[in-house]
Specification:
- With about 375 residues, the protein is of the alpha/beta class.
- It contains 12 helices and 17 strands.
- The strands form 3 sheets. Strands 3-4-6-7-8-9-10-16 form an 8-stranded parallel β-barrel, surrounded by 5 helices. Strands 12-11-15-14-13 form a 5-stranded antiparallel sheet.
- Strand 8, helix 8 and strand 9 form a beta-alpha-beta unit.
- Helix 1 packs across helix 2 and helix 11 packs parallel to helix 12.
- About 45% of the residues are buried.
């Protein structure tokens, strides 16, 4: 496997010839469409002949309205598919997704991939609601009702695991939240279901902030079968332009996590998207547009922008002008994803989890296949 960075004057025929591969292989692997235009600074995946041997637990979140072709293309590279998401009421009644998810569950199981029900405390406004979390973790009767409805739904629909994705948990609910995870795991494990939990990206035990104070890495690591570090959203839609998952910050989270949680329980969260910010950035006013990785490259091509690579964040970025407004774009490419895969190897983590799978980025999966062996059997 190699990565080639496009230079001025390059074309696909020339690059393919230099690596002794066909132009068709190069364009298909990198999803380059006719008329095969390239951006200066664009990183291309050049496939090798060997397949990875290290086992990897690979999963990602997807909404039920995902394009069927996108899902079908992605499933061969996954061990688990996390269906996003089920909610619940203050009384503990389970709330299903707005769109039907039966077809996703069937597609996953037919591909030998385990479908996982994702539980979130999303309110009617679509935002995480910590009042829902408090109502749940402080009331055993509400917990019992929710656990019963979860078990019934998972059995009826054919789910094979449960993921708990609670954000903005209040600091005073820190211990109760971990106790709830332990309680639901003790029930789910009896029926062969594993329980995972998504963790906000902390770098220390007593990190301040609403996103962090209710998340106890040690307690949740003990309570769940597995955890995923949500190592993304440093660059986010309402914040200033920067890398979504700068590797220097991701490393700090992993460095702390392995002191509290066994490494074999940890999956690294990887973003499958980027952001396009209009400039100048004004706090409270500017809002970036979410874009997928191929879209970012296409924007660079359309506007003649050169893609640069930040060697600290290990992330690609570029600027362009449109209608008199300057833009800044940060996204993921094979270089930034490789840095994350190397971090997984370095720390001995056992998994990679993606937010989200709604757009198919083929080079990511081909590179994963080169570096790891996706284990579809014997998953815990």
């Amino acid at each position: 496997m190699e990565i080639y960075v496009v230079k001025q004057g390059d074309n696909v025929d020339q690059i393919a010839a230099n690596y002794n591969i066909s132009a068709e292989t190069l364009t298909k692997d990198n999803q380059i469409e006719y008329p095969y235009r390239l951006a200066v600074g664009q990183a291309l995946f050049i496939r090798g002949t060997l397949e990875g041997e290290e086992p990897l637990y690979s999963f990602g979140y997807a909404y039920p309205f995902i394009n069927s072709r996108t899902l079908t293309s992605t499933l061969p590279f996954l061990t688990d598919l996390y269906v996003f998401s089920y909610g619940f009421t203050e009384e503990g009644n389970l709330v299903p997704p707005a769109s039907k998810d039966d077809w996703m569950i069937a597609a996953a199981r037919n591909a030998g991939v385990r479908p996982v029900l994702t539980l979130t405390p999303l309110g009617t406004d679509g935002k995480f609601n910590n009042n829902l979390v408090s109502a749940l973790v402080r009331n055993p009767d509400v917990q019992q009702r929710l656990i019963w409805e979860l078990g019934q739904t998972m059995l009826e629909k054919g789910f094979l695991g449960l993921d708990i994705d609670f954000e903005y948990v209040l600091g005073e609910d820190r211990t109760r939240f971990a106790q709830f995870v332990a309680k639901i795991r003790s029930v789910m494990n009896i029926f062969g279901y594993s329980v995972t939990v998504a963790l906000a990206p902390k770098t220390s035990a007593n990190q301040k902030g609403l996103l962090y104070e209710g998340i106890d890495y040690r307690l949740l690591g003990e309570a769940a079968d597995r955890v995923m570090l949500m190592t993304y959203e440093w660059g986010y839609s309402q914040g200033p332009p920067m890398a979504v998952a700068p590797i220097n910050m991701v490393r700090k989270v992993v460095n702390y996590a392995v002191t509290e949680i066994p490494k074999e329980k940890i999956s690294l969260g990887i973003p499958n998207y980027g952001y396009d910010w209009p400039l100048p950035f004004e706090k409270g006013i500017t809002r970036a547009q979410t874009i997928h990785n191929l879209e970012a490259v296409q924007i660079a091509i359309d506007h003649g922008a050169e893609i640069h690579f930040d060697s600290v964040a290990m992330s690609p970025y570029f600027n362009y002008w449109q209608y008199g407004i300057r833009h800044e774009v940060w996204f993921e490419d094979v270089r930034s994803i490789l840095a994350k895969f190397e971090l997984i190897k370095e720390y001995g983590l056992s998994g990679a989890g993606y937010w989200q799978l709604m757009n198919f980025f083929k080079p990511n999966w081909l590179m994963m296949e080169t570096l790891f062996q996706i284990e579809k059997e014997g998953r815990g």
